[in-house]
Amino acid sequence: MTATPDKRDDNLEGRNIYEIFNHQIAYEIRLQDAMEEDLLCPFHYFGITDLDIIADAGKSSEEKVENFRYLTSEERVENVMKQAEYFGYSGDRVKGLIFCSRIDEAKELSKKFNAKGWRTLVLSGSDSEEARAAAIERLAGEESEDALDYIISVDIFSEGVDVPEINQVIMLRPTESPIVFIQQLGRGLRKAENKEYVVVLDFIGNYRNNFMIPIALSGDRSYNKDNIRRYVTEGGRVIPGASTIHFDEISRKRIFQAIDNANFSDIKLIRENYTNLKNKLGHIPALADFDKYGEMDVLRIFDNNSLGSYYKFLVKYEKEYTIRLSEDEEKAIEFISKKLASGKRIHELELLKRTLQYRHGIIGRLRKYLSEKYHCEMNEHCMENVINMMTNEFPTSAAKKTYAQCVFLKKEQDDYGISDVYGKMLENPEFCAILEELVDFGISRYKVNYSYHYQNTNLVLYQKYTYEDACRLLNWERNEVPLNIGGYKYDKKTKTFPIFINYDKQDNISDTTKYEDHFVAENRLIAISKSGRSMDSEDVQNFLNATERGIDVQLFVRKNKDDKISKEFYYLGRVIATGNAKQFVMPNTDKTAVEIEWELETPVREDIYQYIVNE
């Protein structure tokens, strides 16, 4: 039995515990499940702002000396003691554990804490087992002359130590990884007599890895930025039972900044997650294994511009992987990985499935299968859009070059068959196996995340979509570049009119684009037209008379435009103009615009609403 199966050194020979037990896992329980089953002591976590000057150490010796001075300053010592006494502990006396980054820092802090009345002692890897046991006895025991209030640890208390009496954990170091964070938090989670809860104080400096804190607390290893932001905002909703999570305002901002700056499609992060899973399984993981074992979302691999597909990742980084595809085959796998495998629509995936069995009559067979299996009827607009997707006619002219060879279909009388170039790819059984695995992965994602459609659309409430996703799923004949869409765009052919709102506006954008779109309530939104519009402008009239004109207006909102990677909007359903509209002159310009009040057909779910509207 082990509480730490995923260690950072388990890629070394003889260190992989899964391998030692022939990859046979009898039972596994993670933090969230253990809290739900009441197996652990509840915790109250407080993310507290550390001094402004506490940041990741620099590289030069001068910077390291300077950083040490801040880490052990009187100001920091007093702040730690003040917060520890304010937030308290459960029990007759404090029995605490403090985690530091460096041995010299730990010794200096201990000296200063002791001078101010605390009873502390430093333990590190160089101390003997006897010295550790004696220190633990002094900490865990009753009040006495040689009792300890805190043990300050650098590297030995993250794992393999059992002191149930610990009732306060103080973290004075950057979070290195979610695994280490949970190991350190876990030191206080054992149940003990007269201990109702453990208090966890995390002093959050200006660290690059701050984003790992909500990942660790939530247990969500998908590395989806918007999900992580929501965990920071929602706090205790994530953790079952009586535990609570609080971040003060500045530490919350520091974490948001770290999330914005992080690259979750970073090769190092991908390789680390891949290695964890491979160690657990004892073989190269299949795509489905990432979901089955709760590892990193494979879409992060697809998003990485130097990869684009799991196949490409394995070719680059897995010595045991020997399959090699042709250039065209590789590009086809990348196209399906990037554009379709997220499962946002079933049509293209089931079309590809048909092509593995049939050569002709593909669209007819697809229509029949969708109707029988999914009770989904494909209208003319949808059919045209799917065909355009699979013949490279959907992208804008500049984007067509990227996947020029990804033409899967060709016209045959009144239906479509497999194109010659794709037919040649299908002669390769290794290509077919990779394609089938990828398509099955996409279908499973569809069933879990995207099958509960909103009304008669191909969209799911509160799921996230890019501009391109929206154009595709609204069945537009061609994609549009975001710059041409702006805040909204009307498609005459489908009579659909999506509105895209960036709820957090950046300070440095021009006054004409600084529209004050805002929610008044969960079912009411004030949105501003593009600049240079009046009450008589065609787009404004289409909005105000949408119902009479048979125009379908749909709302997409995103919280954070600043994020270079997560370019997705929450889908919030259909909206109807209430009739309240007024023309005005935009501040600091001579341009007019129109403010329109909208009613949402479905009020925004409370947690999403709070996340969007709160800073």
UniProtKB/TrEMBL annotation:
Q: Where is the Helicase C-terminal domain?
A: 72-236
Gene Ontology cellular component annotations, sorted alphabetically:
cytosol
Q: Name one GO molecular function term.
A: helicase activity
Q: Which Pfam families match?
A: DUF3427, DUF8090, Helicase_C
Q: What UniProt keywords are attached to this protein's entry? A: ATP-binding, Helicase, Hydrolase, Nucleotide-binding
Listed CDD domains = SF2_C_EcoAI-like (cd18799)
The protein's matches in PROSITE patterns, at most eight in alphabetical order, are given as: HELICASE_CTER
- The source's domain of life comes to Bacteria
Q: What is this protein called?
A: Helicase C-terminal domain protein
The top of its lineage is: Bacteria, Bacillati, Bacillota, Clostridia, Lachnospirales
